[in-house]
Specification:
- This protein is mainly α and about 230 residues long.
- The chain has a single domain (about 45-220), classed as Urease accessory protein UreF.
- The protein contains eleven helices and no strands.
- The chain has helices at about 15-20, 35-40, 50-65, 65-75, 80-90, 95-115, 130-140, 145-165, 175-180, 185-195, 205-215.
- Helix 7 (about 130-140) crosses helix 8 and helix 8 runs antiparallel to helix 9 (about 175-180).
- The longest helix has 22 residues, at about 95-115.
Length: about 230
C-alpha cells in the first residue's frame, strides 16, 4: 500500500471517527485502567459513588496533564519528536510513562497498517512514541480537525475507564453505561476547555491519582497493566 503524506487531502468522514473509536481498533487501550485498579484494591474506590468521583477527577486531570500534548502535536505535527521528548520528561510516573509509550507505538503501527499514514520519518521520528503527542500528530495526518480529535481522545479515555470499572466488578455493565452517559456533558466541557491549551499549561492536578497508578506494579494480582 502506498503511504500517504503527513496531511491527507480529503476531510475524513464519520466512518473514520467511528473506526478510531471502535474497541476493535488495535491500540491496546483496554489493557489499561489508568490507575483505577490500584485505587480499587487499596480501598480508595469501593462503589459506584466513589467511582463517579474518581472519573470526574480523572477527566479534569486529563485537561492539563495530557491534552496539551495532543493540541501541540496536532497544531505542529512537524515538531512531534520535540513534543515527545517533553512528554517523556513530564511523565515521571514509571507506570504511566510505560503505558503511554506502549499505547503510542500501538497507535502508530495500527494507523500505518490500516490507513497507510505515518508520523515517523527521518526528521520526525518520535524517540519514545508517547501516546498523546503521537495521537495529535496522527489525527492531523488523517485530516481530523483538532476539535474532533480532542473530543475523540476524551471519549476514549472515559470509555476505557468505565470499561475497566466493569471488568473489575466495581459496577455492573448497565450502571457503567449510565455513568458514561452521565459524564458526557463533563467530557464535552473538558474537550472544549482544553482546546486552546498548550505545553505552557501543563500541570499535575490530581497527584493522588498519579500515586495510585504508580502503585500498579506492586499489586499482588492484577487484571490491567496500569
Amino acid at each position: 500500500m502506498a503511504r500517504r503524506s503527513m496531511l491527507c487531502s480529503q476531510p475524513p468522514s464519520d466512518w473514520l471517527v467511528w473506526q478510531l473509536a471502535d474497541s476493535a481498533f488495535p491500540t491496546g487501550g483496554f489493557a489499561h485502567s489508568s490507575g483505577l485498579e490500584a485505587a480499587w484494591q487499596h480501598g480508595e474506590v469501593r462503589n459506584g459513588l466513589e467511582l463517579r468521583e474518581w472519573v470526574l477527577t480523572s477527566l479534569r486531570q486529563l485537561t492539563h496533564a495530557v491534552l496539551p500534548f495532543v493540541n501541540a502535536a496536532h497544531s505542529e505535527p512537524g515538531r512531534v519528536a520535540e513534543f515527545d521528548r517533553v512528554c517523556e520528561a513530564f511523565t515521571t510516573n514509571h507506570v504511566a510513562n510505560r503505558a503511554s509509550r506502549v499505547l503510542g507505538k500501538a497507535l502508530v503501527a495500527a494507523v500505518e497498517r490500516t490507513f497507510g499514514v505515518s508520523v515517523r520519518g527521518e526528521s520526525l521520528q518520535p524517540p519514545y512514541c508517547h501516546f498523546a503527542p503521537v495521537y495529535g500528530a496522527t489525527t492531523r495526518s488523517l485530516a481530523l480537525p483538532n476539535e474532533q480529535s480532542t473530543r475523540l481522545f476524551v471519549f476514549m479515555h472515559l470509555r476505557s475507564v468505565v470499561a475497566a470499572s466493569v471488568r473489575l466488578n466495581i459496577v455492573g455493565p448497565m450502571e457503567g453505561q449510565a455513568i458514561q452517559f452521565q459524564f458526557s456533558e463533563e467530557a464535552e466541557s473538558v474537550a472544549q476547555n482544553s482546546a486552546q491549551l498548550g505545553l505552557n499549561d501543563l500541570s499535575q492536578t490530581a497527584p493522588l491519582l498519579d500515586l495510585w497508578q504508580g502503585a500498579q506494579d506492586r499489586l499482588y494480582s492484577r487484571l490491567f497493566q496500569t
